[in-house]
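Hey there, shall we discuss this one?
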Amino acid sequence: MSDDFATQGYLTVVPDLFNGDPLRPDAFYSGKVDLPQWLTHHDTATVDPIADVVIDHLKHSLKVKKLAGVGYCFGAKVGVWILKFCSVLCFSERSDCRVASIF
C-alpha cells in the first residue's frame, strides 16, 4: 500500500512502530510467541514516542502541512492514536488477523 502512495507522488513514511521487534508471522501462527507478553512491549508508552518523533519531523523539519494515516491490523489502532498528536485525516482499517481482535 505504501508503495502505491509513493508511486502516486505522495511523501510516504512507514515508521518502525515495532521498534525492531516485529511479530513474525511464522512464529505467530506456529504458537512460538507469547502474544500477550509481546503486546506489553508495544503499548502506547512504546508506540506513542515513535509516532511523536515521526510527526514532529514531518511537520517541523519537512514542513508538511497535511498528514494522512492508513493503518491495517496493529497499525489501525496506531492510526487512531495518531489523532491525539495532531490534526490528522486518518483512515484506519481493521483486519481479521488475530492480533487485531485482541485490541
User: Anything to note?
Assistant: Residues 43 and 65 are 28 Å apart (CA to CA).
